[in-house]
Amino acid sequence: MVDKQNFGPLFYPESVAVVGASGDQRKMGYQCVKSLVEGGFRGKIYPVNPKLSQILGIKAYPSIKSIPGRIDLAMVIVPAKHVPSTMRECAEKGVKGVVIITGGFRESGEPGKKLEDEILAIGREKGIKIIGPNTFGFLNLHANLNASFTPTLGRLRKGNIALISQSGGLCHIIGYGAMDGGVGFSKIVGLGNRSNVEFRDMLEYLEKDPETKVISMYIEGIDKPRELMDAAKRISKPVVVLKAGKSEGIKKAFYSHTGSLAGNFEIYRAAFKQTGMITVDGCMELFDVSKALSMLPPPEGNGVGIISGQAGPAILIADACEQLGIHLAEFSLSTMEKLEELLPPLTIISNPVDMAFTGGDPEIRIKVARILLEEKNVHSLILFHLYYPSFEFPTKEILKLKKYGKPIIICMSSPRDFLKEERVKLEEGGIPVYPTPERTAKALYGLLRYIKRDRSTETRTVQDSSQG
Amino acid sequence: MVDKQNFGPLFYPESVAVVGASGDQRKMGYQCVKSLVEGGFRGKIYPVNPKLSQILGIKAYPSIKSIPGRIDLAMVIVPAKHVPSTMRECAEKGVKGVVIITGGFRESGEPGKKLEDEILAIGREKGIKIIGPNTFGFLNLHANLNASFTPTLGRLRKGNIALISQSGGLCHIIGYGAMDGGVGFSKIVGLGNRSNVEFRDMLEYLEKDPETKVISMYIEGIDKPRELMDAAKRISKPVVVLKAGKSEGIKKAFYSHTGSLAGNFEIYRAAFKQTGMITVDGCMELFDVSKALSMLPPPEGNGVGIISGQAGPAILIADACEQLGIHLAEFSLSTMEKLEELLPPLTIISNPVDMAFTGGDPEIRIKVARILLEEKNVHSLILFHLYYPSFEFPTKEILKLKKYGKPIIICMSSPRDFLKEERVKLEEGGIPVYPTPERTAKALYGLLRYIKRDRSTETRTVQDSSQG
Is the CB of A38 inside 8 Å of chain B's CB atoms? Predict the structure, then answer.
């Protein structure tokens, strides 16, 4: 039987064989070797190809058994019909972790399902963990391991978000999106057909993974939903879930993707909420909410303070917050007095705090932020910043505001190439940055929905009003 | 009386005075001159400042009356209390267009309101068009005119979207966001307090503006909603509207922004829909929908075809489409046969068309696109493309598909610095590109909601199911 917690050979291998390695740049068997090399993997890499002596300057071997040392992880890219024999060779060699990138199994009909059953039987008998088949692979960034067919993803930062997905495409969308900021991932895993590693297994493993703080999941269909729900109930870490399959029209597309049925969307969704998972509606929201949870302390309540140099964006943020049940904090008298003293006479003191009349003065902005963070009704703070040639963003001073222990979120708008360093520094320092009012509010909303299970009573600061 | 259609001096001036020009980079009076210069304005620029002989190498004048030639447009940045006297000087000089950037008028209380009334009276008496006060300014990109305090916005492309906004901040968010692609604007106008140029006036002007195809509006509050509705009913061009003020808690913030009450959000929203305006929920959606309308032909129905190399993103696009009432087109028998002939045997033929088994072959993708565009049930086409080192995006061939006369939308995911040229070329060629499945679907939804008024009967292809 597979030891469900023995993910070591997969995620922390000392040696990786690439079975079906290729010298042709257009082939996945080439890109997989490149991923390992460019990702900075420090263990041994063994490309397997009977026709080549080397790939990317690394000695190639004609077969698995001809490899001299131990193999912890095998990446398999050979055609589907050859995968069972490859699995047997792996088993003979004592390989304990396999990622099967090849497609053409359960998802493609009956003959493929038979092939997958064969693989599964070998895995079960020999205690081999199998990621896939039919996956882009996976990454363990803390081990500098990019065991996927996409070298570009190896550029991602080390961080504490684990992304577990039934779609490799979604891992790419989120990964590419994340490259702009300072947020990082612990593990990114494309589960593919989930032959013997399921969402449930990953949840249990990641709950104990010291490198993971937030678990982010994209689910199309699950074969044993009850098992996932039971596992989810036992997880203390925040779990953010995007469930596909809202629409009837795409049920067919589902099965042909990873060989699973979508199930009833509403029932899943309700069950996810019951187990404390945070459900989201789109792939950027999955990332945005995970990022907020990965960086920010839990807010003590749902009162938000908003500071902005421009009224329009502040109104849009406030609008989006209130729509989601996030309360615009009312300031107590002492806060009002402190703000009145600080701000120019024309300013009407209210929340959002409109800084339009202070120009771009970063010092006043920091002072206002401090006053708001000292206000008991303000449980979290949103700061809007617009790129302007003569306005500096006080990144260093903003980072110091973390000492108040309240979540601080930045909404920052600029042309792509501006303020890039600031975004990275802020996020590396634990303050998430979002580009639009709507995404900012939704990220805070996600943060507020996390049930803090480590407390004596489960508390949730806002009602989950998300649709569907 | 102001001739409501005489916007010439504002939008196509031959000479611009900057009253309150400054030599200090941190001042708006400096940035305004810089905006004019860097924006490539070809007419005369007259900085007005009694203490300086030049600004940015341009001869400065001590007063408006000391300027030798005619002045079409005056940008006013002097303190609020000096604005009425500046207006009088402008009137004496025969200036017919003024943009008052200075704040501190109606939005700041009774004394400010008196100042604004004074300005208004002068404008009314002398027939001067006034944009503002309390605005970032405006741009007419086709005239190389950046009459705003933000030089960066002058980098925007010439195009056919007019953005009319009660918030300068929102113009910046949308403008900065647009710089990444190949879409452009005709005019961007911050109306500010809308003292004598209102949304209604802009609608009437833009309806006849040959450079404007789509009108995009951000509205906080309106003083005479009936007049706007009446004007909107007469507009044949698509009008996309973002109305702020969903929440009760921010009504206070509204007034202090541009001196207008938010009014009842639901009533406004319903009225906007009745007049045929397309309502949206966020600032990126305002831009995304406007972009789709600016580039694409109207679809003949609400059947969409989806092509993707990755199943997960295709499912997310399909999901988002169906949620919005966009129908996944059913393929007729002949289309199925053509696809079966073309695609590898493992492929299950359905919509979305999953190209996973064809690798990154751009030729097959084009062939599939052609088959779908020939299908009568497919009224619009979404193509998903994921950056991958060895996959080329067939930009040139995709642009040729426009000949089918059906809307084609690209959803493209890549790290920021990749595929940038492709995005620009596609959008310059009239095919909009969006970064996520959800934004792609919402853009198509916006396109489908446009009532084609030029037809004998008004037709709308999907129901407007947007919330609020």
Answer: no
The model carries a pTM of 0.94
Q: Please report where in the chains the tokens 């600032």 appear, as a residue.
A: B283
- Please give the Cα distance from B34 to B78 (Å, whole number): 17
ipTM of the prediction: 0.93
- Output phi, psi for B392, to 5 deg: -95, 145
Picking from B101, B269, B307, B346 by the largest number of A CB atoms within 10 A of its own CB, the best residue to mutate is B346
Residues B129-174 pLDDT 10s? 999 999 999 999 999 999 999 999 999 999 999 999 999 999 999 9
d(CA A388, CA A257): 46
Give the angle B317-A182-B284 at the CA atoms, nearest 5°.
Answer: 40
Is A270 in contact with A135 (CB distance < 8 Å)? no
Q: H or E stretch including B397?
A: helix B395-400
The type of residue at A268 is Y
Chain B residues whose beta carbon lies within 8 Å of the beta carbon of residue A252: 348, 350
pLDDT band at A293 (very low <50, low <70, confident <90, very high): very high
Residue A210 CB partners (closer than 8 Å, separation 6+): none
Q: How far is A258 from chain B (nearest CA, A)?
A: 9
Q: What does the alpha-carbon distance between residue B425 and residue A439 come to, in Å, rounded to a whole number?
A: 28
**Three-class DSSP category at B212:** coil
Q: How far apart are CA A204 and CA A221, in angstroms?
A: 19
pLDDT of residue A251: 62
Q: Which residues on A lie below 8 Å from B168 (Cβ)?
A: 310, 312
Measured CA distances, A338 to A331, A374, B127 (Å): 11, 11, 45
The β-bridge partners of A384 are A308, A411
